[in-house]
Every structure is written in C-alpha cells, then in structure tokens.
Amino acid sequence: MTDETFLPPTLEPEILPKPTPDADRGWAGVTALVLGLINLFAWCLPICGAPLAIAGIIIGVVGLKSPNRGISIAGIILSAIGLILSVVATVAFFSLLASGWFQNFDFNQFYFQ
Fold first, then answer.
1. Whose CA, among 3, 44, 71, 102, lies 20 to 30 Å from 53?
2. pTM above the 0.85 mark?
C-alpha cells in the first residue's frame, strides 16, 4: 500500500452535532402527564375518563423512549389510577342501576322553585 490511498479524515462529523432520533418524542411525555392530570378530574364521567386514561397510557408508553422518561412514567401512573377509578365508578353505577336504587329516587328534590 502506498500513502496515496489514504485520505485525510474530514472534520464534518466532528463539527456537526449528531442528530438525536428520540428528540422528536419529547412531546409524548408531557402529553401523557397532561392527560393523566385531566383524567384525575374526569374519572367520575365514564364517557370521558376511560378514553382519556387509555390515550394517556398509550402516549406515555410511546414517550418512554424519549429524554423525558420520568414525565412519561408519571403520566402512565396517573392515567392508570384514573382508569382504575373510572372502571370502579362505572361498575358502581351499573350495579346501583341494576339493583333498582334509582327507581325511588326523586330527581326533583334538587330543583329549587
């Protein structure tokens, strides 16, 4: 081998920053945390609480590979708590409905004339 076959190294890789593939998932952790916090207030409404919790868990799992991993874990935990509370509230409502508890309930007692 001769010295002519070796080329000097370029400085481009050292000057340019390396692209981070996980930087585009930074939104997922914050979104999961916000959904988890909203879900703590909406768990008593099954039509709102359960879908928000499921969306928060899915987005939190997507955000686990981001630099905001702790925020994603917090969002997953809050969404899981909200999902459990939402399921308990839904089961309690339907069990009260099936037992006939609402038959003798007077809704007009809350109406002030």
1. 102
2. no
